[in-house]
Amino acid sequence: MPEQYIQVAIPVPMRQLFTYQVPEPLSHPSIKVGERVAVPFGSRKVIGIVIDAQAPCNFERSKIKSIAGRLNDNFNLSQSLVSFLQLCAHYYHHPVGDVFQQALPILLRKIENITLSPPMVWQAQSPTEDSADMLAKLATKAAKQYALYQIINSRNGISWVELRTLGYSKAQLNALHSKALISEEEQIVSQFTWQEHTLNEADKLVLSSEQAIIVSAINNALSSFSCHLIDGVTGSGKTEVYLQAMEEVLANNKQVLVIVPEIGLTPQTLSRFEQRFNVPIALHHSGLNDKERLATWLSAQQGSAAIVIGTRSAIFTPLHHLGLIIIDEEHDSSLKQQDSFRYHGRDMAILRARQLNIPIVLGSATPSFESLQNALSGKYSYHQLHNRAGKSIKAKIALIDMNQQQVEFGLSGTLKHEIKQTLARGEQVLLFLNRRGYAPAINCQECHWLAQCQRCDKSYTLHQKQQLLICHHCGSQRRIPPQCPHCGSVRIAPLGQGTEQLESRLEDLFPESSIVRIDRDSTRKKGELAKLLQEVTDKKHQLLVGTQMLAKGHHFPDVTLVAVLDVDGALFSFDFRASEQMAQLLIQVAGRAGRASKPGRVLVQSNYVDHPLLQDLVHNGYHHFAHQALSERKQARLPPFTFQALLRADANYPSYPEKFLRALTQHPIENCEFAGPVPAAMEKKAGKFRYHLIIQAKSRKALHHGILQLLAQIPNNEWQGKIRWSLDIDPIDLNW
Ligand code: ADP
Ligand code: ZN
Ligand code: ZN
Predict the structure, then answer these.
(1) pLDDT over 80 (residue 416)
(2) Is 208 in the pocket of ligand 1 (CB under 6 A)?
(3) Sign of the dihedral through C-alpha 255, 261, 263, 266
(4) 3-state DSSP call for residue 192?
């Protein structure tokens, strides 16, 4: 028997695979690609994934270690997932072991044996006379419990994870359980057999002709790769198109993967999927614990889940029979992971669809310039939805010139008046301020001393309720000094306004109205966000104050006035993407206004109302603005017309990162240009000094080869150990 060698990916920051020997007692049954094995690495034992089961041995045999064991569980990776993850590592020039590490559920990275309890689902009990009475009572007295019952009753078994994500509580569930209206059963796991009663026809809508054309374009191309961009304003019926395109795929017993920016934030979208399809749905998002994540992974791999809905990393779920991928809000920057393995969920989804030869659908009211350009150039099928579905009318955007106004607490006279009128009509108002905390700075009114984080050289944000100064860049905290450390004066005051302050000012200005603040601070507690959103829908609050968290996909039918308090920051950024992001945000926020039958209004406060970007966006809309901006990008040879990578470096000494990057630019790279090194927008963060180097090329291929050349120079560099560096392919945030 010849000796067997395998190549495995190990979770270490090295861009290579490692060779191990398989000792004879462990070689039956034979090891397969995707299997998880325990291997010695240094003094540790780690989990490795087999990438090549029949590797040649290119080293001195005596130096090669043997694997320590095989896991022999249900959790091996499919060949297809292994190849996909290798493609990802290749695309991003990221250490392959780390890609596997980040793509797998945490429990699969551990050597201990994993035991998962069998999946459980809730079901409605068959109706009796008693239960009919009880339900009638619930309908009037406990609307939420009644709604919970309805959703359980409409489904053929639904998990606690799904119910929780939809915003229901254990207490509500227990209440129904104790009334014997529902019961918990072990889920009958059947593989790939959901076609029989897939659809709840009840709320299926008759498509408009624009919608119908898109659905058939997707359904006519199910057996090969194609990428579809659905470009339609908020409320134009994109979700309905996704739902109807999915029908055919599910009817063919194939699975669908749906990626959304943040599910916890948009339970309404999830509930539409839940209500439409009577098939097992698995969820993947940050609100799951490790076992729940693994359960999703397993149900997708084994084929018991028909639909997987998740946030960006759901793209790494092993779907055995995937037939369609949908990326909702494809422009959303949360699709890009901004640390360590910096991948873009949308781009990797496209790669996966290509690998599997299936269609992918991207949807947005404000497509990213990348996708828009690919659609305009014919690389993607381009579908536009021009009108809002149903009755709602598009909201009008108007600018308020702050230079011409009496301003109190950041609110112009005009805005205050409009808020009053809207509240008087019994409608809701959303005020949008992208700055959490009480004030973005505090200073001394005598000597102008500014409280600054020493580690970042940026001002501390005042959090009044907690009585703390917090650095939003590195998280460090300190108490509010009783007097100025510089001149001793006690006249220390907040500077500028954040959401916390706005909330308390509004309480004074509109004492009759209930105000709710929705930002990262007010929603830290688990379940809090769902609770607040529900209270808004139930009209417990009339005034909503929030950060960009509020801009995403929520459906508030009674919000008819949306105001953006301060857009000016985005108008003067050095990052060429800032204006794209500002425009997307404005249009998305505006999309919150007047979604139901009442017309909506959007007011935008600015000190620079004549700024051409604002003027263009407000008068000509997103598409005009985007076309204009795209032609400027073309002239300036910027993405999406060129391809970029960003090499970031940081160190404890100010001069190191720059010298390190400059040394790299001394060796020209074929078909690539360097820009920089330049100091990062935040030159100092958490005590480190930071520099950027951009590598740019005319084609993706040239960039890829250029990066390989660049990386080859780094390992033996004299800076080893003195600086940290990281590579970001297709960077979208130059501010970092
Ligand atoms: P989007 O995803 O683009 O925001 P949705 O699919 O959520 O749009 O549709 C917005 C609203 O219009 C929803 O209330 C939906 O029920 C309704 N709607 C969508 N398509 C139709 C249609 N063909 N006929 C009637 N109403 C529709
Ligand atoms: Zn002072
Ligand atoms: Zn700091």
Answers:
(1) yes
(2) yes
(3) negative
(4) coil
Confidence of residue 554 (pLDDT cuts 50, 70, 90): low
| For the ranges 358-367, 442-451, 486-495, 661-670, the one whose mean pLDDT is highest | 358-367
Cβ of residue 240 lying under 6 Å from some atom of ligand 1: yes
pLDDT at position 270 is 84
Tell which atom from ligand 1 comes closest to the C-alpha of 206.
23
Distance 580 CA to ligand 3 centre (A): 27
Mean pLDDT of 243-272: 86
pLDDT at 553 over 70: no
Residue minimizing CA distance to atom 10 of ligand 1: 235
Sign of the CA dihedral 510, 513, 514, 516?
A: negative
**What separation in Å is there between the alpha carbon of 265 and the centre of ligand 3?**
28
Task: Please indicate whether residue 286 or residue 228 has the higher confidence score (pLDDT).
Answer: 228
Does any ligand 1 atom lie closer than 6 A to the CB of residue 390? Answer: yes
Query: Which is the closest atom of ligand 1 to the Cα of 208?
Result: 23
Residues ≥6 apart with Cβ < 8 Å to 631? none
Whose atoms come closest to the Cα of 485: which ligand?
2
Of 241, 235, 166, which Cα lies nearest the Cα of 556? 235
pTM > 0.70: yes or no: yes
Q: What's the pLDDT tens digit per position in 557-615?
A: 888 899 999 888 777 776 788 888 888 888 888 877 765 567 788 899 999 999 888 89
Angle at 128 between CA 275 and CA 164, to 5 degrees: 35
Residue 703, exposed/middle/buried by CB under 10 A (0-12, 13-18, 19+)? buried
The response to whether residue 642 sits with its C-beta less than 6 Å from ligand 1 reads no
* Distance (Å, whole) CA 104 – CA 296: 12
Give the residue whose CA is nearest to atom 12 of ligand 1.
389
pLDDT tens column, 682-709: 888 888 999 999 999 999 999 999 999 9
Q: How far is the CA of 440 from the centre of ligand 3 (A)?
A: 13
Q: What is the mean pLDDT of the chain?
A: 88
- What tokens were used for 57? 């041995």
| Residue of the CA atom closest to atom 19 of ligand 1 | 237
Binding-site sequence positions? 444, 447, 453, 456, 471, 474, 484, 487
- Please give the number of the atom of ligand 1 that sits closest to the Cα of 243: 6
Distance from C-alpha of 12 to C-alpha of 35, rounded to nearest angstrom? 18
Q: Which H or E element spans position 726?
A: strand 724-729
Residue 201 pLDDT greater than 70, yes or no:
no
Q: What residue numbers does the annotated binding site for Zn(2+) cover?
A: 444, 447, 453, 456, 471, 474, 484, 487
Backbone angles phi, psi at 650, to 5 degrees: -140, 160
Q: Tell which phi-psi region holds residue 181, choosing left (phi > 0), alpha (psi between -120 and 50) or beta.
A: alpha
